[in-house]
Amino acid sequence: MNITTRTQNDVTIVAFAGSLDSNSSPQAQQALEGILAGGARKLVVDFTALDYISSAGLRVLLGAAKRLSGAGSALRLFGLNDTVREVFQISGFATILAVHATEADALRGL
Amino acid sequence: MTNALRLTIGADPGEVAGVNAAFAEFAETHALPAAIRRTMLVALDELLSNTIAYGFAGRGSGEVTVEVELRPDRLTVTLTDDGRPFDPFGMASPDTSRSTQERRIGGLGIHLVKEMMDEVSYQRRADRNVVVLAKRLREEGP
Q1: Which of A16, A54, B14, B36 could be cross-linked to A21 through a Cys-Cys bond (beta carbons 3.0 to 4.6 Å apart)?
Q2: Which of B10, B26, B12 shows the shortest CA–CA distance to B77?
Q3: Does the beta carbon of A81 lie under 8 angstroms from any beta carbon of chain B?
Q4: Chain A residue whose CA is closest to B110
Q5: Angle at CA B54, nearest 5°, toward B115 and B111?
Q6: Cβ of B60: how many Cβ atoms within 10 Å?
Q7: 3-state secondary structure of B42
Q8: Closest partner residue to A19 among B41, B46, B100, by Cβ?
Q9: In order along chain A (110 residues), what is the average pLDDT of each group of 10 residues?
Q10: B78 CA to chain A: closest CA distance, Å?
Q11: What share of chain A is helix, strand, coil (3-state, %, to 5)?
Q12: Domain of A23: which CATH number?
């Protein structure tokens, strides 16, 4: 799992490459906690290079979503492949998280 | 070229990554479609991490055997462990319609496996848990 972060105005864009599973989720959680501890309130997650996600990865996303549910906060995702999309649909995450097709869509209005 | 893969790991969460790497290599060797490979990797992660976290509680050791068999129309993975009797598919499915604040992750992994696989089964056999996962493959046209 490779995690890269960049900022654009007040939006933090985090890209995950590889797999978000039981092995890599502690690393992902640590990265997201660091970003949130740094004061970021608007987070865009780039899954373009994410191969697959399991429930361990969903747990990490849910934790971030809970912390970013207040006014002025946002958590958006884009670039999901068909398998990641299927996991989101089956788990119900497709309805509780904001999933966009492209980075431009995800950034619009933030 | 053999169409099967078999490996045995200890009951250690750190060993799941090795199984996933071995399966990914198998998938590449046999040119499995990406969607099939990814789906099986999700299922392996869910079941192995579950078994290793709960199946050997109170014991110092244990082992899990992973057997992969590829046929033209079907990919089958059999997981056998000597942990306490546990049917992962016997649990109720979680409520996936709750809001962000109310959501819990418990049981979600097994729910994913049941939904994403074409067939799942559980048997207790010779003091072992035997879980079989199968995914149908589309046959190539002539």
Answers
A1: A54
A2: B26
A3: yes
A4: A55
A5: 10
A6: 6
A7: helix
A8: B41
A9: 95 97 96 95 98 97 94 96 97 95 96
A10: 19
A11: 40, 30, 30
A12: 3.30.750.24
* Residue B45, min C-alpha distance to chain A (Å): 7
Indicate the CATH number of B4-136 among 3.30.750.24, 3.40.309.10, 3.40.50.10680, 3.30.565.10: 3.30.565.10
CA distance B76 to chain A (A): 19
Residue B16: closest CA among chain A residues belongs to which residue?
A23
ipTM over 0.90: yes
Residue-by-residue pLDDT tens, chain B, 142 positions: 569 999 999 988 889 999 999 999 999 999 999 999 999 999 999 999 999 888 887 777 899 999 999 999 999 999 999 999 999 998 777 787 777 777 766 789 999 999 999 999 999 999 999 999 999 997 654 4
Cβ-defined contact of A91 to B98 (cutoff 8 Å): no
Check residue A104 and give its pLDDT. Answer: 97
Q: Please provide residue B60's backbone torsions phi and psi, each rounded to the nearest 5 degrees.
A: -80, -25
Q: Which of A19, A20, A22, A51 best probes binding to B when mutated, by most B CB atoms within 10 angstroms?
A: A22
Q: Which residues of B touch A51 (CB under 8 A)?
A: 38, 41
Total domains present in chain A:
1
- Characterize the bridge pairing of strands B63-71 and B74-81: antiparallel
